[in-house]
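Researcher: Sequence of HTH marR-type domain-containing protein follows. Predict its structure.
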Amino acid sequence: MREVAERVVLSRNRVSRLVDEMARLGLVNERPDPTHERLTRALITEEALAAA
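Model: Prediction complete. Tokens:
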């Protein structure tokens, strides 16, 4: 989330809320980062790609 926040110039907290909402809508899946226990990755779903 930090990396996205830096790129889009939003706070980390705001990005986390947006990603949570996108996950609720089925646009992304949140997964733990396998290389760091405190990080989460947001993966775009096939449904989101098809809608783009």
